[in-house]
Amino acid sequence: MHVLPSLAQFFLSHEFLANTVLFLGVILEGEIVLIFTGILSHMRVISLGEAVMLVTFAAILKTFIGYSLGKWIALRWPQSKLLRYVEKKILLLLPRFRERPFWSIFISKFVYGVNHVTMIFAGYMKANFRIYLRAELLSTILWILAFLGLGYFFSAAAFSISHDIKKVAILILIFIVIFLFLQRLLTFLFDLVELPPNK
Hints:
Shape: elongated
Mean pLDDT: 79
Largest sheet: none
Order of helices and strands: HHHHHHHHH
Low-confidence stretches: none
Number of helices: 9
């Protein structure tokens, strides 16, 4: 239950290493890292302005890495059974990917655990890079604002209920679990909604 104080102490004592972990965390995971960044910003452990710049750079770098990795995989293993399996799973989650790649890529940014694979899949399928980049950059801006904001306001709400750090940690954990459930619900609703065609 001492996660928040430990994170705060780590950031205060090892600023460069902490920023490196934050940078890599956004590339490798994303949502939970941004939420904790928002929490630490509310606690004034890290500067919100510096955090926004750092996570934005990491997220944009991830956009290029994902697409490039997909293209490289397509060249190296074009007939891989594993990739065919991944393709089926992606098309199950995002059935309109081929017809509406912009909206599929955009929405995938907000579905936990789907965006990384979608970026690689876009490169693997050689999706139009301009459409891919536009969808990724627009969704990245909203994604950063949404998840940093959620962390910031989760923290503010939790501290307004209690100043006991153990209770705050439990409240934040409950908020995050509820939020992840709502993300899964969004995936289900996305499959039911008819989206407009690509621009």
